[in-house]
Design goal:
Layout lengths: L1 E5 L3 H8 L11 E12 L4 E11 L4 H5 L5 E11 L4 E8 L6 E11 L8 E11 L5 H33 L6 H15 L1
Antiparallel strand pairs: 1-7, 2-3, 3-4, 4-5, 5-6, 6-7
Helix pairs in contact: 1-3
Length: 188
């Protein structure tokens, strides 16, 4: 389990989350495609399902297994604005016959200072069924996840600080959802 405390209120962190990609700290993220989202105004909840495509410099043994350097993962994000909780769950699609990488991240008000700080927790499960190379696949995936997690934290810190310093407001969850509906309607 990995934890990080943002010295920013939950609303700022949750709004900044949606601006995370693209980022100069995460050039490996090639695309983020939303293919499902829902919003419940009464419950104050928003959920999205996105396809994340990333590039990676794979070690030669992974290339020999036929694993492509461009990988895809499904990310499901659920936001409960009433409870001030954002939960992200992701799982790889690419190479899942060799290795499964599942990650759960949660942003919620910090219990020690809920009005001014946000607690981020991340947990990952990596399992491989590839004979002879299972431990190497798991070790490489864990190292890669840790590097990317540090970049993600750095990106979020910068986004939150920019919002605090410059006073601009990122879109609320309801505004974000409404604008995506407008784009979908216009393209239909």
């Amino acid at each position: 389990m990995n934890e990080h405390t943002y010295n920013h209120p939950w609303n700022r962190v949750a709004s900044s989350f949606w601006q995370k990609h693209p980022s100069r700290h995460n050039p490996h993220v090639q695309s983020v495609d939303t293919f499902r989202r829902s919003f419940d105004a009464d419950q104050r909840t928003f959920s999205s399902c996105r396809l994340i495509t990333v590039a990676s410099n794979l070690p030669s043994f992974m290339v020999a297994l036929g694993i492509p350097s461009s990988a895809k993962a499904v990310e499901i994000t659920e936001v409960n604005a009433a409870e001030k909780r954002l939960v992200l769950r992701s799982r790889n699609i690419t190479a899942s016959q060799f290795i499964v990488v599942e990650e759960t991240c949660c942003y919620r008000p910090h219990p020690d200072d809920p009005d001014h700080k946000t607690l981020y927790t991340a947990e990952a499960r990596i399992s491989s069924v590839a004979p002879l190379v299972a431990s190497r696949l798991e070790q490489w995936s864990l190292g890669n996840m840790m590097r990317n997690a540090n970049r993600g934290l750095q990106t979020m810190e910068e986004l939150c600080s920019a919002v605090r310093q410059h006073g601009f407001r990122l879109p609320s969850i309801q505004t974000l959802y409404s604008s995506t509906l407008d784009v979908e309607t216009a393209s239909s």
